[in-house]
Structures are given as C-alpha cells and as structure tokens.
Amino acid sequence: MDIILQVILNGILVAALYALLAGGLSFLYSTTKIFHLAHGVVAVGASYAFWWLWIGVGWHPVLALFFSVLVAAVTGFLMNELVYERLRRHGAKGLGYLIATLALLMLGTGIILALFGAAPKTFRVETATLAFGEVNITVLQVWTIVISIILLGIFFSITKFTKFGKAMRATADNETVAEVLGIDTKKIRRWAFILVSVLAAAAGILNGLEFNLDPNRGVILAVFGFAGAVIGGVGNLGGAILGSLLIGMLEQGVVWFLGAGWRNAVVFILLFVFLLLKPEGLLGQRKQI
C-alpha cells in the first residue's frame, strides 16, 4: 500500500508540471489553431535563465525569477509575432504551422546547447523531507504542487471571468465573427502567447528545481504537454489537467514497476490509443461533420 501511495504522490507531482504545459497548449490551440510545440523550449529556456541569473551571476532568486519569467514571456511573444503571424498573413495552413513550431523547438534547443552546453546542471536546492510512514515528499515538492494549483486557478479565472477571457472564447468560436464584433483578434493571440509562456516558465523552473536541467528536456515537456492536452480534450482546461494526471500516474507507475526505460513508450501508446479510439479526449466534444 505504501508503494501505491508513493507512486500516486509522485504522479501528482509530475502531473502538476505537465498540467501547466497542457493547459497552455490547449488554450493556445483554441485561440490560434496552432499546436505550439515550441512551448517546451520556452519552459526549458526560462529554467536555464533562472539558473544562470541565480547560480551563475549571483542575483537574488526573486529578482532572477522575475527576469526569467520575463524572458519566457518575451520569447513567446516573439515566436508569435515573427513566425506565426507572418505565416498567417501568407495564408499558411496546419502543416505550415507544424513545421514552424518543430523548427522553433529545435532552434531553441540548439541555442540552449550552444549557450550552456550539454552537461546537466542543477540548482543544488536541499529541502526537508516529510515522511508519512514509508511515503516521503519534500517541502519543495509540496510547494511545486501548491504553486501549480494556484497558477492553474488564476489561469482559469482569467480565461473564464475577465473581458480578455470572453474575447478569447469568442475568437476561438469564430474569429471572423469576433472581428465583426470589434474584437482585435491579433491582440488576443498576442496576449494568449504571453500568458501561456508565463505558465511554461513556471513549469520549466519548477521542473528544474526538482530535476536536473537538460537542454533536450524541452522536447519531452512539449510532447507530454501535447499528450495531456489531447488525452484530456483540446480546448478544455479541466481536461488538460485530467489528461496530465492520467499521464503522471501512468508514467510513475511504469517507472516504479517496469523501469524508466518504458516511461516514454507507454505514454506514447496511451496517446495513440486516444487518437485512434477517442480523438476528442476525455472531456472534449466530438465535432459533427
């Protein structure tokens, strides 16, 4: 029983990180119809910026955190303005956006490798461990889960109850009608990228504090965030959280009982099953043709 509880706890921890990414990806797709896989490199870039400013330069961690989040927001903004909006003006379709976002993901990974090297880096953060029988959790892990829940709650409130959220939903439903109603859809897309990049920065920094920094981690974060969004139902924040929780539990269970080598394979199998049998996801709605 203690092993099962430890697996569940570990699953909740990684699910909290994946949910920040999956929620952002799902939100962006609803607003822009782009699966922004370069989201993963935004997250990793923020973690490396935080590491460099705090550990490398010696800034106060709060100041380093602020500038790292700012770096992520600016990066997301520039990706949209310099790449996606230009493609939109030239009438690009889904394949064009897919190629562009994969290129951005690889470019960002290459830049991080060039700046920081391939060797893993660590924050060397040590926190107390809370023991409940044979089940253990660190104070850092508790804060990771709490911060993720708070950020997702704020994100939900912004998209659900604010004027921006209403404009976003109108844009997602029908961009042409939204523009007729006076909504600046380009501005909505711009702020959508900034908002989800902040979530990505949080996921990347929390991931970096818990695990080692790895330049190639952006690919895994992007794919697992994408999987969480698809499994939960694209366009549904609750679905993204549920999908991420399912992936987190499955991942940690596989790591514990089968070994880490099976982790990615089993998650991809689960993604394929949903794409083939339930493409609308757990909480998504099947579109009528």
Written overview of the protein:
The chain has 289 residues and is mainly α. 76% of the residues lie in helices and 3% in strands. It has eleven helices and two strands, in the order H-H-H-H-E-E-H-H-H-H-H-H-H. A two-stranded antiparallel ribbon has the order 1-2. Helix 9 crosses helix 10 (237-257). The model has no long low-confidence stretch (mean pLDDT 90).
Short description:
With 289 residues, this protein is mainly α.
The percentage of residues in β strands lies in under 5%
Helical percentage: over 70%
The span between the termini is 47 Å
CATH architecture: Orthogonal Bundle
Task: Label the overall shape.
Answer: globular
What structural keywords apply?
289 residues; mainly alpha; two-stranded antiparallel sheet; 3% strand
Describe the protein's topology:
Blueprint: H1 2-32, H2 39-57, H3 61-89, H4 94-116, E1 129-132, E2 135-138, H5 139-161, H6 163-173, H7 175-180, H8 185-210, H9 217-232, H10 237-257, H11 263-277
Antiparallel strand pairs: 1-2
Helix pairs in contact: 1-5, 1-6, 1-8, 1-9, 1-10, 2-3, 2-4, 2-8, 2-9, 3-4, 3-8, 5-6, 5-8, 6-8, 9-10, 9-11, 10-11
